[in-house]
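Support case: user asked for a sample of complex input and structure output to validate their parser. Sending the pair below.
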Amino acid sequence: MKKLILTIAFVYCAVLSVLAQDSPYQKAMKKEISNLEKADSLSKFQQSANAFARISQLNPGAWQPYYYGALAYIYQGLDGSLSLHKKDEALAKAEELIKKADVISPNNSEIVTLEGFKVMAEVSADPGSRGQSLSGAVMYNFGKALSIDPKNPRATVLMGQMEYGTAKFFHSGTEKACGLVKKSQTLFEEQPVETLTASLLPTWGGSLAGRLAKACQ
Amino acid sequence: MKVLFSTLSLLFLAGCVLGQTKISGKITDQKGVAMPGANIFIKDTYDGVSSDENGNFSFVTNETGKHVLNFQAMGYKSQEREIECTGQPIRYQITLAESINILTAVTITAGAMEASDVKKAVVLKPLDIVTTSGAMGDITAAMLTLPGTSTVGNDGRLFVRGGDASETSIFIDGLQVGNAYGSTATNVPTRNRFSANLFKGSFFSTGGYSAEYGQALSSALSLNTIDLPLRNQGDLSIMSLGGGYTQTWVGEKDALMASANYYNLAPYQSLVNQKFDWEKSPVSWDSEVALKHKWGKAGFIKAYGHTEGNSMTIWQKNAGEPGRGDRVHINNRYSYGNLSFRQTGKNDWSFYGGLAYSHNRDAINLNQEPIRQINQVGHAKVVAVKDLGPQFSLKNGLEWYLKSYSEALVADHLKRDIRDNQFNHFVEADYYFSNRLIFRGGLRSGYSTAAKQFWIDPRASLAYKLNNQGQFSIAAGRFHQLPDEKLRVLQTDLKNAEASHYILNYFITSNNRTLRAEAFYKTYENLATYKGTDQAPVAIAQKGSGYARGADLFYRDKTTLKGTDFWITYSFVDSKRRYAIYESKIQPSFAPKHNGSVVVKHFVSALKSQLGTSWSWNSGYTYNDPNLAGEMKGKTKAYSDLSISWSYLPRPNVILHAACSNILGRNNVFGYKYAGQVDETGTFSGIPVGQGATRMVFVGLFITFSKDKNANQLNNL
């Protein structure tokens, strides 16, 4: 009991101090997360990846810098102007960072989603030869992420995107895909963005859901 | 002057107070090209910046005192500079050197053809092995569409560059597989025993391969099993030849796959006219269990067991004799077990290895005379790899083989056998001079207790990447292999036969097109020769020798024709050898001069179907015609087989697959059998060795049950 009270007190103090003032780490992270959200070019994504690498070397025990660094590399891997070779190089870097994040925070729904997103980027880099063998791994990761956190909007919308592609390929109905997209939109709306942002947790993906919802109409 | 001085000191003071130091500079690569996107930062601080598109960087820090400035860029070696922040601007001109990047660096492609989803310089994807029309799901048949191979239609095994089938060794997860092909009667083609859906990739070498592989004069085929499957699922297959079921259970760190299959060719053969004279059509069953366990972060332990049984009875006509000929009944029992591991240790060490054992029993009745043959192969292997920096790695391995063979005439209580222990050590070094140039050198040594012989094989290869995506590789090496067990059992101290390979290879892959060209020269020494017949050899010696030389070409294109993936292969082999009963150097029956194949796959979205066709061709097989003066003077007409296949996916988890071989109905002949005596006209009468049936039709329905409704068995076709 005493231990519990102490723990609560400790957590309370910790939360208070967090609320009271951002540490240099948090300041740096918030700035770079917002930069990544605004990034729209290869060089910006690389700048972002570099910034998160700088934060990681100071905070090797935190998974978020690795997570966002990986995300910045995945965005590069999705850039159509790059050669397959360059895409794979960026995605290999993403994989390296995801592995580091996963060691710090195993079974984290967001990290598992990111792994799925990375494999998805690998598939879209060379769909003809990778589609059949890797799309299973994509769905597996999104499925696993949703089993850990059924309300993960990113896993939901990415799964929707994957289902959408499959449905188009097989000329079958997009109801299931669009259902997932719709569900993800609700989940994105329900996201406590401020709390998440304060704890440096991911909030991205809403615009993707919007684009897919349009395609569904 | 005074004013200036005070201004300066003021500025200096201000600098001290604010403690701001400007750090700037330019980053280039070794060629002097500006490098954008490099990461420049002061270690253990948040202060840093990325270089711009001109390689320039500039940032300001509030830190004071001594620090370390770090320069990093993807694909380059990092650099550090010690700096002192005093408020004085610091400027650096940095040249970053390329680091060795396994992902983009040159790879050795001489002799090697890889099927992989993850690696570069691959010619095939694992899926191709099973979606190749005409292969009918047989791994070996798919490999026969690759350069350097010859299709020998009455055998079914892999023949590489003028070598016979026993010159190719097959490995699963690095461990030897004894009797990888099903037991069959002479001139009845066989198949690989192992299902293609077990494997995630393969490495097929047609020469000059690594010191890791031995006891193979021509070729090594290494198959790698999948790690953790993705999901729990059940796979049901219903085929014109039988059926099977596989269940997969997947846990957090473990997976278990169990499968059972039953095949019976009788119903099919009663419907479709057969040229072979079957008394009892082939019937077989098999069951498999595969266990996978994730060991720590990067390690794996895998256990695999396979057991099967099959039987057949066939009548084989003899030339110049009336009646059905010889009655051959074969009952085969085969088991293979394999336990393998791989693990990464500390200080850049990694380890892999395992144990494998196979047991093959053939109970043969030749015209009611019972014969029993038993083969056993045990293999233990452990390999340690040490990375000495990013450009140098050293591999050391120890192996032990136990090989035994016995044959018995059951009724006469006659038995003979051979048991051999072989010990091997190999060491191999990979050294990257740069991302463009790699050297691999290896040495393999061995000792056989039965042959009482010690041998050493040096191997070396070198690859150089050109400015475009293309690369040249060369490879050379020496290879030893003991003669066939059916000869060794007669004379247990037979020594190794020896081969030397020299290979020059060009490989380029770009924009979904792959071109591979290779020239080779191979010599053979100490091949087994004997008198008598192949069935009853006498006076065995090792006086044979020979050569094989030639070139092959492979072109694959996935983009030029929309929705179509095709590859074209041409192999030229000029081979002659003195071996077996031949007194002179002859072109072996299994080494046709010109060989070619074309494989086309086309996906038709509107039909939800993949259509495939493959054409395999060669210029004809030599055969020994006793009516002609000299040895091996006969040659068959060209071999040609056009196959088609159709995979229809009505739902993502259901596949209907239909395939037909030799649709043109060509009557291929692989050689002739001759009577032992001349007939009344003074000639040896002969009968052709041909196909079991004009065409082979296959229909199968494959259904996958899982939570992921999109999962299917396309991998298995």
